[in-house]
Each structure stands twice: as C-alpha cells, then as structure tokens.
Write a structure and sequence with these properties.
The chain is an all-alpha fold and 164 residues long. Helices cover 71% and strands 0% of the residues. The chain has nine helices and no strands. Helix 3 runs antiparallel to helix 4, helix 5 crosses helix 6 and helix 6 runs parallel beside helix 8. The N terminus is likely disordered.
C-alpha cells in the first residue's frame, strides 16, 4: 500500500488546524514507511519542507539536506543540500553542524574554509557529538587551518571513541 495524494492532502489539512508541527512526524512516517506501506520520499519531502519553513524545525531542515544530498524524493543537488544543512546548523542541530564542517573541509559544493569548519565542529563538540570530535582530530592531525598537533589530534580522537 502506498500513500494516496488525496488522502495525504486531507490528513495535512486536518493536522494544520490542530496546530503544532505534525508535518515533521508525518514526514518521518512517509520517509521510513512501515509494515503497511513503503517509504514515499516525495511525500516526506513535502512534509519536511512545510515543517522546515512554517515551524523552523531544525530536524526537518536536516532531513531536507539528507534528501537533496542523496537524491531521495528530489533531484540530487549538493548546493541545496548544503543550504538546508546550514539552516539546521544555524538553528543549533549538532548533526547538521558536523556535516556543514565536513562540506567546508572537503570543499564540496562550497569554498573550502577550515576556520569556519572548526567553528561548526566546536559548536557540535559542545553538544557532545562524537563525529565532530573525530573530524576535529583529523583537522589537527593534518594541520588544516591550524598548526598540526598530534597530541591534540589524539585527545580529540580518544574523546570521539569514548562518545561512541
């Protein structure tokens, strides 16, 4: 069984009147599917976008980045992915902050900028993001925008491992 457009539109009208960000929840359901129906990425995209715009939902913004990065339900577009990851990062989502840093380190779809990358990594590390510690370890190991420092690199790597 898959989503019917008219059924989804009817559901969206009902939840809009209830208030709150039910679009995010419905987007997750559409994205993941369940035993009764397969994922419907186009519908997930629609719900996440509404949630991201109307409710400034940082996880919906992140999910839009994932969808554009992967080409799920939308045409693959790394610049649009970065836009949504950055929006989510600016709203404080540590997973998005780490991905924005990765974009800036790699120079993929954006200009390489190690100093800005470290800014985003520090914000994510302040929230305990293990992946941010890992990438900071690489920055210090390779001396990307900072003086290479193997001891600092190892400390960040150990913290990353301890956090999982």
């Amino acid at each position: 069984m898959s989503f019917s457009v008219s059924g989804v539109d009817s559901f969206k009208d009902k939840i809009k009147h209830k208030g709150g960000d039910h679009f995010y929840e419905f987007g997750c359901l559409a994205f993941n599917g369940n035993r009764s129906f397969s994922p419907c990425y186009e519908q997930a995209y629609s719900c996440f976008k509404q949630s991201a715009i109307e409710f400034n939902n940082l996880v919906s913004q992140f999910n839009l980045g994932v969808m554009y990065c992967s080409g799920l339900g939308v045409k693959k577009d790394d610049e649009e992915a970065f836009y949504w990851f950055l929006r989510s990062a600016e709203n404080g989502y540590e997973k998005a902050q780490t991905i924005v840093a990765k974009y800036l380190i790699d120079g993929s779809s954006v200009e390489r900028n190690y100093i800005k990358a470290l800014h985003w990594l520090r914000l994510a590390m302040n929230q305990g993001n293990a992946e941010a510690y890992y990438y900071t370890s690489k920055v210090y190991k390779d001396g990307l925008g900072v003086d290479a420092n193997i001891n600092a690199s190892l400390d960040y790597l150990k913290t990353s491992a301890n956090l999982g």
